[in-house]
């Protein structure tokens, strides 16, 4: 019987921690199941876009959307995948506080995969959502 492709929780968590950029962001895998993944990101002062209002820069939210979508696909394939395209919608400002991204795979094909992600603030309010397309084709 063939082994199931993909990562278990510990292997995927190690992949998330492996990147210096991810360590700087402080992200960590919180959940992995058949429905998708959940990634937590603590607040950092460096995320502030506007010093007076103190909301999170949209690039940080977009990064979290991309990262969550990528790892939702990686969890199924057992390997990382590069981003081909992505779209992000911003729904409200993310004020200082931890963020959580929840992502799931829409479809995995032989060349491309699509995943959706949503980012919530500490009050479970939706701050951003998006969809990424990732290259699954191997050389």
Task: Explain how this protein is built.
The protein has 139 residues and is α+β, with helices and mostly antiparallel strands. It is 26% helix and 35% strand. The chain has a single domain (9-135), classed as Thiol Ester Dehydrase, Chain A (Roll), CATH 3.10.129.10. It is globular, with a radius of gyration of 15 Å.
The ordered string of helix (H) and strand (E) elements is HHEEHEEEE
CATH class type: Alpha Beta
Number of domains: 1
Mean pLDDT: 94
Strand content: 35-45%
User: Between the first and last Cα atoms, what is the distance in angstroms?
Assistant: 26 Å
Question: In terms of topology, how is this protein built?
Answer:
Blueprint: H1 9-18, H2 20-25, E1 28-33, E2 36-41, H3 58-77, E3 83-90, E4 99-108, E5 112-120, E6 126-135
Antiparallel strand pairs: 1-2, 2-4, 3-6, 4-5, 5-6
Features:
139 residues; alpha+beta; Thiol Ester Dehydrase, Chain A; 3 helices; 6 strands; globular
Task: Tell me briefly what this model is.
This protein has three helices and six strands. It is α+β, with helices and mostly antiparallel strands and 139 residues long. It starts with 8 loop residues before the first helix and ends with a strand.
